Input
Amino acid sequence: MLRPARIHLFTAAVAVLTGSLAACGSGTTGSSASGSADAFSAATCQGGTLHVLNASKATSGYDPAVLYTSGGGAIPRLLFRTLTTRQSVAGAEGTKVVPDLATDTGRPSQNATVWTYHLKPGLRYADGSAITSADIKYGIERSFSSQLAGGPPYLRDWLIGGADYQGPYGSNPDLASIATPDAATVVFHLRKSEGDFPYLAAETQFAPVPKAKDTGKEYNAAPVSSGPYTIASFTKGKELDLVRNPDWSRSTDQQRLACPDRIDISLGLSAAVINQRLSASIGDDADAITTDTALDAPTLAKVSASPALKKRVVSGQFPDTHYLAFNVKKAPFDNQQVREALAYAVDRTAVVNAEGGSQLAVPSTTFTPASLAAAHQDYDWFPAGPTGNPDQAKRLLAQAGHPNGITVPLAYDNSDPAAATALQQAFAKAGITLELTPLDSSAFSSTVNNPTTEPALSLNSWGADWPSGGPFLTPIFDGREIVSGGGNFNLAQYNDPQINAEIDRINQITDYATAQRQWAALDARIGKLALNVPLYAEASSVLHGSHVKNTYLDQWRGWYDIASVSVK
Output
């Protein structure tokens, strides 16, 4: 997921705040899993009301078609169950995908182009009606409608016929590549091999939607719940109140403890207010968490100086990468020596300090970050050291025909000028003059992600939608992912048939650990081309109230596992 500027929210990247990921099997070859929420026993649940203090205004509501499960925060998992889900347990085991509505994580064909799921018996919505395979199919189909745009783009690319499908409304036909041979079986036919399909099946687009209850664009305010809670009231931008779904049962859901009787979510609060209230932990705020706001550098310093507050802080690293993106179609970055020169000139210490220091940023020399450990391989093909190697950068520029240096514009989101300024100062030592070109946040993506308007050099970031190298590397380096009209993330506009073929080969692998080793090797291989310059990965710290229990942060998306949190 592309993010042009640093933000202190857990809403747009896969954050891991309890440490690094570790390689592990995913069970994606059809093995059944009973789940591991038992690590926080249901006996620890004591009812009560959990309060959530969030910066997000949730103005688009809670339609599963338009949400990113990773980007939409922790709340959708309380309302919607999906074919699969992440394993609800702290630590490396939390990177695993496990069954949710389905009996297993999916049974693939030999080349992973057909995936079959069977639903568990006894599944019901909050209105008491049965959940069927037709509801899964319909829920996915409606996500293709232009009026419900905003969710992950993978299904449009992966499903046969998905590229041209317009959704189920009006006289449109159904999507034939999703078959429902009976009420408990759903079969997906893909146009290419996708070993990561069980991870995608955890996104909210795979939540069931009963066709008879679909209200189109209005569904976002009162969706039919398949999860442990249902919406009691919702005021966009202000408040969301959840109560128990009486037809949800732990007997079919081992991944959500659903401890509180109610969950009251305050929306649209400022980060300063959220962290002040959590620090004070008075009244209802003692029973509060946040699912989208981290501590900034000044607040973190104050909290770190208080032993009592420090006990209520969890810290760690986002598996995302902030990087300089070269458009290799434009001079001077059509010359690899020039690209390498900038890589050598980078002062990562200055960039990290500009972003708030080592508690908020960790230097990176690889595109796949160290926190995505299963898909990570250490490399540093253009060693700049902690503070840059301007002499080597000058030598490369001279060899490339620029003995007097170069002048190039750097486009960046104006909400985060710190890194751009640090880079400008570092590059000046190597004879590289950066002309800073700030773009308004609203215009950044429309400019940078359109190949016709993309600048030669820009400052960007990317976070994977699930813990795998596939969604980290494919959108950035697969030439077939280049989108001409906008929404393009292959900013190098790089199209190598050999790299494309290697991506296809790895996508046929359904064993998680094996696939991740291959993704790591591919990252190292591509890194030699200097198509971008990795700078840093985000680190963060987050507070919780003094009466909250089970406050581990999951290893998949990096917010509190609100489905397991309880209050004292």
Notes: The chain has two domains: 37-265+544-567, 320-540. The chain has a mean pLDDT of 89. The radius of gyration is 23 Å. The domain at 37-265+544-567 is CATH 3.40.190.10 (D-Maltodextrin-Binding Protein; domain 2).
